[in-house]
Design a protein that fits this description.
It contains 14 helices and ten strands. The protein has two domains: 4-152, no CATH class; 160-373, no CATH class. The termini are far apart. It is α/β, with parallel strands linked by helices.
């Protein structure tokens, strides 16, 4: 198949080639443009692991419908990368030729690209619509991923958990030095969350919706009853609720690596939640029916856990299930599943907002102090 040549402008930024040009919609449809999707079932070092979320067809079709307007404009460029430097730049004619059988990689604009495709499928007259493109050449996958993260880390609608997953992959491939100080906490908490979600022995196994996974709808649960008690909470919500636990344990592990810290947090979480499971097995048998496993439960409970860790450290207690059980002995709120039922208007449900997490945590801690004082 012959190559496609388009007029282009070339520039160099810090030694990196950047091209600006327009592609007619019918040519964009004919060349190979890949979008590498993040797959929570793949290891970080899997060469096929991606870094973007799944495309939402409804969003792309809304854009496609907008393009039906006679005065529709789409000046925002697709961001492509010629990872393998397969394009050819002609300095004499200022044209860029593209091999349609060798992939370019879309690292920003997948919904617009899909919208262009839908519009072309609906109306052949759209074939010559000029689509703006900014293309880098020769960036490796890690640099490409960093560009995606930089562009999207503050963009509305981009899942925080996916950004954390990208940073975690960067740390796994490039080492701790690739992660800035402000990024360490989300990476540690993401990796700890991922570990307990995937561990078949963990009380949280399959209960956390990881990046590119969504909470099940009622329809999806009806289609497959096995889904009923899985994906109870989003990874981003769980990670947010881990902050107090991370910050306390970090004081004991200042010199530890990111992997050491995440493994330690995952271990503590498994031991603590295993103790809660022994005290409230009914809740763990039907977690979707209890607020304990949503952000309104995990948030305040992790505040309680932080206080327990402080006391246990001072008392030279190990962070293991048996010791947590001893610390929780007599605490009604953390041994009474009815208190955590999602439909109990007199229970934990009334503390549903994040602003009320400290209030519920204080109630539980006060209850524990009263038990010990009696």
């Amino acid at each position: 198949m012959s190559r496609y040549a388009v007029p282009a402008v070339r520039a160099v930024q810090n030694g990196r080639e950047v091209f600006s040009f327009f592609l007619p919609a019918h040519i964009l449809a004919k060349i190979k443009v890949d979008v590498e999707k993040f797959d929570s079932n793949r290891d970080y070092d899997d060469p096929e692991q991606g870094y973007q979320r799944n495309a939402e067809n409804n969003r792309a079709r809304r854009f496609s419908r907008y393009l039906e307007k006679a005065d529709a404009l789409s000046p925002t460029a697709l961001m492509l990368n010629d990872r393998h430097s397969q394009t050819e730049w002609n300095t004499r004619t200022n044209t860029l030729s593209i091999d349609p059988e060798t992939a370019l990689y879309n690292y920003d604009g997948q919904h617009r690209q899909l919208g262009y495709q839908f519009r072309l499928e609906e109306d052949e007259a759209f074939a010559n619509f000029p689509i703006p493109v900014i293309m880098t050449r020769g960036m490796d996958k890690v640099t490409e991923m960093l560009q995606f993260q930089t562009i999207n880390s503050t963009a509305k609608g981009v899942a925080t958990s996916l950004v954390n997953a990208i940073l975690a992959k960067l740390q796994a491939t490039e080492g701790d030095a690739a992660i800035g100080p402000s990024q360490e906490r989300p990476v540690v908490c993401f990796k700890a969350t991922e570990a307990i979600a995937k561990d078949p022995e963990s009380p949280w196994h399959l209960m956390i919706a990881m990046p590119n996974e969504k909470l099940w709808t009622n329809k999806q649960k009806a289609e497959d009853p096995k889904r009923e008690h899985t994906r109870i909470i989003n990874a981003s919500s769980f990670i947010d609720a881990l902050r107090p636990v991370h910050d306390y344990l970090h004081t004991q592990m200042m010199a530890a690596t990111i992997d050491e810290r995440s493994e330690r947090i995952a271990s503590v979480l498994n031991e603590f939640w295993s103790a809660l499971k022994e005290k409230m097995p009914e809740a763990f048998n039907a977690p979707s029916e209890y607020s304990l496993f949503r952000s309104s439960g995990v948030g305040p409970v992790h505040m309680v856990l932080r206080d327990l860790l402080t006391k246990m450290h001072l008392g030279r207690r190990e962070y293991v299930k048996e010791q947590f059980l001893a610390m929780l002995d007599g605490c009604g709120s953390l041994s009474n599943p009815e208190f955590w039922q999602a439909d109990n208007d007199d229970g934990a449900r009334i503390y549903s907002g994040k602003a009320t997490w400290p209030m519920l945590a204080k109630i539980i801690l006060r209850e524990m102090e009263e038990v010990k004082a009696s």
